[in-house]
Amino acid sequence: MPLAAGAAARTEWTDEALMHAIAARDEIAFGVLYDRYVDLVYSASLRVLGDPQLAEDATQDIFVRLWRRPESFIPDRGRFLSWLMSVVRNRAVDELRARGRRQRREATVTTSEGEDDQVSLIPSGEGDDPILAAQLHEEQVLVRKALAELPAEQRMALELAYFGGLTQQQIAVALHEPLGTVKTRIRLGMLKLRRSLGGQVRD
Amino acid sequence: MTPEHISHEQADEFAIGAMAPDVRTYVAFHIDSCASCAEIVRESEEAAAALLLAVPRRQPPGRLRENVLRSAGIRKAGPIGRIVQVATASAGVAAVIVAIASFTGMVSVRDQMNGLREENGRLQTQIDDALSQKVEILALTREVQEQEQLTNDLKTASRGDRDLILALSSPNASVAEVITVDPNQVAIGRLVWDAEQKKVWFIAAHLPQRPNGETYQIWVNSGGRYVSLGTFNTDVSGFARYETFVPQGLASYESAVVTIEHANGALERSGPSVFVSDLSRLRR
């Protein structure tokens, strides 16, 4: 099957099917999954890290690890997108904790020279799926609305924990608030978020 | 915590990443063997993951795709690709020379050519295998280096966290409130001074990230003379934690102020103020 046709066929596959194929070393499936989620992974990394270069590094690292260790995703434990976001968050928060101290990596063997004479094994852009993109956009709008409905102090507690990588104790110290107050805000925030999203997020 | 099962509240704390590390380890261990608790945590993780889905979409640089494929070992790197081409061409030339020699020696050209083709094929396979191994070794080496760097960074960050926690729990530490200059601004912050460590921390949340070309700069003031303590920026969530040594202490300063200055900071305070803090009201 020609590469482009192979990629086109795979754009209709579910995330889980693509991961199954990736585990069988299907390079085209990897390309399709990359194209499907690279914007989201990069944007989420940028949201946590606030630095385009660090976000790019994190995105690269996440996808390379996904290719090398696809078995990390266990379908029985939840949907792929949630797992991916969890990986992104953990990777970015690890980076965030080292932020300001980490030196930029030197140019790697992968970016040195001779890019224009290489033959691509995977057709670029063939992973775009307008139906999936529309679903993701719809989900994004839904989540934004749910977040906007949260009281500011609850949203801040959630964001400091999730995007800032702070524990409840650290948040309490940083905000000069009692630990119990922070715990309550996180509990209520998550409760409202779950209720707002309940059953409406794409399965 | 219940010794046997995990509550929804604990699942939320786990999913949002707000749990203390030791408790987190316990929960992670527990859900590995408890399907019902794993399901509760999974639901919480779905909700937490939604926070990232709400992030505005940005497109990464176009070069990223190429870098990812190469780092994953899917696409051969430039110099290595060229080695393959050169090796193939060299083998082909060698085959022609040997074939001519065979002809002049009245040896069967066809047999020789077939033998050489097979030899070329074997050599090519060996070259491909060697190059694949080389790419894999380079990738593994790079991964090890990254892990070492990450470990060092985490150690450094951990030390920074420890210093701040020590400061906050120290009887020598004091905290000052900072007040936003713009009443419509929702930013909040605290200034922490540890006389023992001679360090000051400035922590802020909901502070807008400065665009390229601008930075926040923190100053202390004594008799109208402003001394810079350094520059910082927030992350996209509006959170900032800045720390610096102040060997001379804060006792001689009356106030602190955070201003917006051009990138790299200003020699003299000139930009608009964001925060002010009355250092005479540092309290333990």
Question: How would you summarize what this structure contains?
Answer:
With 203 residues, chain A is an all-alpha fold. Helices cover 65% and strands 0% of the residues of chain A. Chain B has 3 domains: 8-53, no CATH class; 71-149; 173-281, Superoxide dismutase, copper/zinc binding domain (Immunoglobulin-like, Sandwich).
Strand and helix map with partners:
The complex is a heterodimer of chains A (203) and B (284).
Chain A: H1 3-10, H2 15-23, H3 27-49, H4 52-68, H5 80-97, H6 130-148, H7 152-162, H8 168-175, H9 179-197
Helix pairs in contact in A: 1-3, 2-3, 3-4, 3-5, 4-5, 6-9, 7-9, 8-9
Chain B: H1 8-16, H2 21-31, H3 35-53, H4 63-71, H5 78-104, H6 109-169, E1 173-177, E2 179-180, E3 188-194, E4 199-205, E5 214-222, E6 225-232, E7 240-245, E8 255-262, E9 273-278
Antiparallel strand pairs in B: 1-3, 2-9, 3-4, 4-7, 5-6, 5-8, 8-9
The H-level CATH homologous superfamily of the largest domain in chain A, spelled out, is RNA polymerase sigma factor, region 2, helix turn helix motif
- The top-level CATH class of the largest domain in chain B is Mainly Beta
The second-level CATH architecture of the largest domain in chain A is: Orthogonal Bundle
At the first level of CATH, what is the class of the largest domain in chain A?
Mainly Alpha
Number of helical segments of chain B? 6
Percent helix of chain B, as a range, is 40-55%
Order of helix and strand elements from N to C terminus of chain B = HHHHHHEEEEEEEEE
Oligomer: heterodimer
Approximately what portion of the residues of chain A adopt beta-strand conformation? under 5%
Which pair of chains has the greatest number of interface residues, and how are they split between the two chains?
A-B, 97 and 79 residues
* Contiguous helical run count of chain A: 9
Return the string of H and E elements of chain A: HHHHHHHHH
CATH architecture of the largest domain in chain B: Sandwich
Q: Structural class of the secondary elements of chain B? A: alpha+beta
Low-confidence stretches of chain B: 80-89
Share in β-strands of chain B? 15-25%
Largest sheet of chain A: none
